[in-house]
Amino acid sequence: MALFTGTPVILSSSPFLINNGDSNYNRGVMVSGSNLYYAAYQTGGAASGSTHVLKSTDSGATWAFEDDSNKPASSGTNGLDQGGAAKTAVWDSSAAKIHFTGRKSNAPIDLAYLYFDTGTDLWHPTLVDSGSILVANVAHAALRSDGSLVVLYISATAAPNNLFYRIFSAGSWGSEITLVAGAGAETLRPQGIVIDSSDTAHVLYTINAGQSDYHYVTLTSGGSIGTPAAVVSESSQAQRHMGVIWNDRILFTSINSAGSAVRLFEGTPVSSPVWTALAVATTSNSSSVPQIGIHPDNSKVYLLWDKNLYGGSPNQKVMYNTYDGATFTTEDTFWDIQANPAPGAGSIPPGDNFVQNMRMSIEGGFIHVVSETEVDFPAENTSLVYTAVAVSPAVVHINRMY
After folding, report:
1. How far apart are CA 42 and CA 12, in angstroms?
2. Which of 254, 267, 345, 379 fits a disulfide with 263 by CB distance 3.0 to 4.6 angstroms?
3. Closest listed residue to residue 320, CA positions, set 309, 311, 330
4. What is the DSSP letter of 61?
5. Alpha-carbon distances, residue 140 vs 105, 137, 190 (angstroms)
6. Which of 19, 14, 5 is nearest to 289 (CA)?
7. How far is CA 204 from CA 65, 290, 317, in A?
8. How many angstroms separate the CA atoms of 78 and 50, rounded?
9. pTM confidence score
């Protein structure tokens, strides 16, 4: 029996919404007091590519756009580029802010910062531009305990084979610093970042076009960069990763480009990790970054992925299992989207429905999952739906390491 058996809630039927790409650019559902928040991106229409924040005051039963007239557009002075790996959303529960970093959408394409205040439910009116650089790609951002952000990116002009970072703190951008320099024709790509209790950033990255050689480097809060080290050599990976730090382990999810094998890269201990690629599950036609979240009692992590995108089986599903540091439970169904479709999707023929690009967070005693799925037929529009399952004990687990 599926873990979720209720009726999914559509976040918006107009405009239709999506998650940003298929990697870890979106934090997932955020809990602020008794309210839920979610950052999403518009697909289609005159404002296609614009950024929205939605809020629920009734535990996810209904959602509404907040301060939408001041949302960052896909172009213009306060525009954040939505394309590719261009935008991140990071939750800062202590400051009650959702931090957005990305590329400016109008020339010059520099780094940009904007935030949404969940205390007032208002967008900050002014985008903060880094100036002086052209950004090819913004892949990841992570929050330190002092409220500053570590932002990883690739330059379009200055040594485009290098991996750079900047710190955003107290309303302004720090200088550009090379985290890892590519040798010769090497091309580096950031794949994940988590921050430990001492504010050291642990960065996963790949080398070269094949993107099969995973490496790892650290960055302390004082700016000291560790010695890069090899992690694993996993061929044909899809560059889709989510990470947490849990029980002296660094964990990054992964899936191969064929969408058939879910992996977990485990590095332990955190202070000097030895890395192993663990087999999580065999799946089929998966299209999403596998998700990971920590149980409220810290006893295990949940892993989540999709299965049977666009057929092969009449039932497209979101699957899950758990890992306690020693063994994985047998995979099971989190949500069977054909058996419990989104409203308006019930007439979709078996094998034609789909689910993809899930975002999971575990906060407030619930597993919150937002997924892209078909919400009407035969128009075949795609939007976001919300599903949630209670876990016990109902203790809020604040995890800033995404």
Report:
1. 10
2. 254
3. 330
4. S
5. 18, 9, 7
6. 19
7. 34, 16, 29
8. 10
9. 0.91
